[in-house]
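Reviewers of the previous submission asked for a worked example of the structure-prediction workflow described in the proposal, so we include one complete record here. The input consisted solely of the amino acid sequence. No template or homolog information was supplied to the procedure at any stage.
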Amino acid sequence: MFEDIGANLTIFQQFKQIISINLLIQLSMFVIGLIISGIGLFHLFRENSQEIELTTDESSQVCSKDPEFGKITVDVGGAIENPGIYELQSGSRINDLINLAGGFSETVDKFHINKILNMASLLSDGEKIYIPTIEESIENQNKNSLKNQSDEGNQTATNDLTNLVSINSGSKSELEGLTGIGEKRAEDIIAARPYESINQLVDKEVLTVSVFEKIKSSISI
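From that input alone, the workflow returned the following structure tokens.
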């Protein structure tokens, strides 16, 4: 009986020893896993920390170079309730500026606002925006109209001068194209050259006064 108990104790001790070894192996693997995980986390945090430091340094450099980074200054005038110089965020549009300046005044040219001004246009730093009044638009239209009429008049005068026949250099056929000038009178005009003025056609008795009156507006020297 005591021999059986002794045998059982020996088996139990061996079994306990085996369990202890397994636990020791598992505990060792667990500790090794923790060490490896710790090393990985350390490197990860270190890399993130370096990236954050680099980003912070770059931001500091940008801000130190431009204290007003992200801001623009724009001048607005004309038919505005509160014309002046305004500071806005970069990326602002004309509509933002108009609202900041109190909106359009009652004298604003609505045609210009609806047809010409692009309220969605992006603003740039140092830009000048001018909104014309109705009176200014009408005045500009009148000036443009007068200029166009003047240009047309000058063009007509130039065309008239270009179409004149020179009594000093015109060909026989060109002279014959004048009212009352035939082949004989054209030859007489050429023979009496040069002329200092168109009136010399009469002074030199090349043409009669009546014929001269018919062609004087069509000739030049």
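The chain is about 60% helix and 10% strand. We consider this example representative of the routine output the project will generate in years two and three.
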